[in-house]
Amino acid sequence: MNAQIFLLYYKVHIGTWLLLLIVFGILFLLYKWKIPFANRILRTTIWLLYLAQILSGAAILYTYKFQAQYIIKGIISLILIYAMEVILRKTKRNRSGTSAYWFIWFTALSIVLLLGFNVGINN
């Protein structure tokens, strides 16, 4: 793959992670405070960010020739997205039981960031 195309995928991947976390935080607070302001627009936005995240991650995974650490990072990223989705749905419906998913979210986010920045991995 061309280096410029890889760099584009990489920047899109990092940018969507940042936007995804910001939109997740905003949407969580809106649901928690029961403010119906632009919920449908933000829900659609977060789903588009999920899609961009998965597609750019798959392109990067292909570029790295499916190395084990990146496959693990991809699986944990999907777990992170799942935890975000469950937290948002339970918060919107005013149901309890999100503490376990917050733990999963925090743990998965920590692992994804550590793997993403190659912390503690000798290449």
UniProtKB/TrEMBL annotation:
<dbReference type="Pfam" id="PF07457">
    <property type="entry name" value="DUF1516"/>
</dbReference>
<feature type="transmembrane region" description="Helical">
    <location>
        <begin position="100"/>
        <end position="121"/>
    </location>
</feature>
<keyword id="KW-0812">Transmembrane</keyword>
<keyword id="KW-1003">Cell membrane</keyword>
<keyword id="KW-1133">Transmembrane helix</keyword>
<feature type="transmembrane region" description="Helical">
    <location>
        <begin position="45"/>
        <end position="64"/>
    </location>
</feature>
<dbReference type="InterPro" id="IPR010899">
    <property type="entry name" value="UPF0344"/>
</dbReference>
<keyword id="KW-0472">Membrane</keyword>
<feature type="transmembrane region" description="Helical">
    <location>
        <begin position="70"/>
        <end position="88"/>
    </location>
</feature>
<protein>
    <submittedName>
        <fullName>DUF1516 family protein</fullName>
    </submittedName>
</protein>
<feature type="transmembrane region" description="Helical">
    <location>
        <begin position="12"/>
        <end position="33"/>
    </location>
</feature>
